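User: Let's play a game. I give you a shape written as tokens, and you guess the letters that built it. Ready? Here's round one.
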């Protein structure tokens, strides 16, 4: 049962009913051919609304199949912040992504404080429980507006299983204190669910200040075609499958009740985690996500070429496993996270990326093939660092004042980032972005 109440239907006043009756009574005077044209124009307007939709295993956009090669670019909200951001860096990064064919970005839509805690994104959006930093909000506004100008689409996770953005553990701490050691609390405590649902209301109904400032028009997030989808969280996990599916159902139903324009996903890593299928089967979840981490999961250590083919094979098998597991669900499948270190496991931005390029190509080829077969729908690499650079050639953890790059604050900086000077990687991305866009 849903955890919210639908409003009762509004009864039209008699004056409205009479007006409607007058309209219908005049339809008889319209010729059949004109009526067909009218119906066609209505359907055409509905089709050309700019929102990504789901039809079976495919995404569609304006009546055509929508497939893509995109990037993870989680720092855009902070870079766009008017007071604490870096607008020049943001626009430069977006221009570079656009010039290389990247039209889809998976970003962050929620970060938690307190900002003095180490190894997390700061300034945060929610700096205290239920209290929000307007500068960071406006950073997200501007980020989405700049994406809109470049005809890009955003996938927006609404929270994070991991602590590098505050995430689940921080919310649990706000309500139940530190050292709970049980992330499952996030799904099964009414206080936390209420807090999460309140944020859904807040972000879906957010009025984008950048559209108002630069174009003089009011655009709510729920009405912005720049947003492709809402994602319940980044890489959520659970071992209580029935209860977890109930939480997913409640949250995704609420999103769809408040926002009929956008599709919804969970944000899970795939079959490597428990319960992922029970979540994917929820009817109000529109598509399935897969993440693959060859080095993190011990499939390949890219210090040399040794073991490279085996690492690629493991990723290919993992993709096949996820396709097989979810094939009867008949929803689009996206490979939305994968990455690899620079050659020699170096964190130096000047280090070569020959092995990584070959790995990217192998993953792109596999997803492209599956997308051409109609089984998958897109891919996002992890992650774009653009003009940002790590401190002292990398390897150190992020600290306030350092550049935001593709690596989250809790990981050695420079591990998986793709920089604006990684020309061979960017050229590869551009080539494959064109191939993905050409799929019908």
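Assistant: Ready! My guess for every position:
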């Amino acid at each position: 049962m849903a955890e919210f109440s639908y409003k009762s239907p509004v009864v039209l006043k008699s004056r409205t009913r009479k007006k409607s009756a007058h309209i219908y009574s005049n339809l008889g005077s319209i010729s059949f051919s004109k009526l067909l044209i009218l119906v066609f124009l209505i359907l055409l307007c509905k089709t050309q609304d700019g929102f990504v939709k789901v039809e079976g295993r495919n995404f569609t956009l304006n009546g055509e199949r929508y497939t893509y090669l995109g990037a993870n670019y989680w720092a855009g909200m902070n870079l766009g912040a008017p007071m604490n951001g870096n607008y020049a860096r943001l626009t430069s990064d977006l221009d570079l992504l656009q010039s290389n064919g990247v039209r889809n970005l998976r970003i962050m839509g929620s970060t938690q404080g307190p900002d003095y805690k180490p190894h997390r994104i700061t300034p945060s959006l929610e700096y205290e429980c239920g209290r929000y930093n307007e500068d960071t909000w406006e950073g997200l506004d501007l980020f989405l507006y700049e994406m809109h100008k470049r005809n890009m689409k955003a996938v927006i996770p609404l929270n994070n299983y991991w602590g590098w953005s505050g995430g689940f553990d921080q919310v649990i701490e706000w309500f139940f204190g530190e050292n709970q050691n049980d992330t499952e609390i996030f799904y099964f405590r009414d206080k936390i669910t209420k807090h999460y649902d309140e944020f859904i209301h807040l972000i879906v109904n957010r009025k984008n200040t950048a559209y108002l400032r630069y174009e003089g028009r009011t655009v709510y997030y729920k009405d912005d075609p720049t947003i492709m989808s809402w994602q319940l969280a980044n890489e959520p996990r659970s071992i209580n499958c029935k209860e977890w599916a109930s939480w997913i159902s409640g949250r995704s139903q609420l999103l769809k009740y408040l926002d009929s324009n956008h599709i919804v996903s969970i944000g899970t890593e795939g079959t490597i985690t428990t319960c992922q299928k029970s979540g994917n089967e929820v009817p109000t979840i529109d598509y399935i996500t897969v993440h693959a981490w060859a080095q993190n999961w011990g499939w390949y250590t890219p210090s040399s070429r040794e073991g490279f083919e085996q690492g690629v094979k493991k990723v290919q098998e993992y993709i096949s496993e996820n396709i097989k597991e979810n094939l009867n669900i008949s929803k689009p499948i996206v490979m939305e996270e994968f990455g690899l270190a620079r050659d020699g496991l170096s964190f130096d931005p000047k280090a070569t990326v020959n092995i990584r390029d070959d790995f990217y190509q192998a993953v792109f080829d596999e997803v492209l093939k599956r997308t051409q077969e109609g089984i998958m729908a897109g891919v996002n690499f992890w992650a774009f660092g653009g003009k940002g650079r790590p401190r002292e050639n990398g390897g150190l953890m992020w600290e306030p004042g350092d550049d935001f790059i593709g690596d989250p604050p809790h990981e050695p900086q420079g591990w998986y980032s793709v920089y604006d000077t990684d020309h061979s990687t960017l050229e590869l991305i551009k080539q494959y972005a064109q191939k993905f866009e050409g799929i019908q």
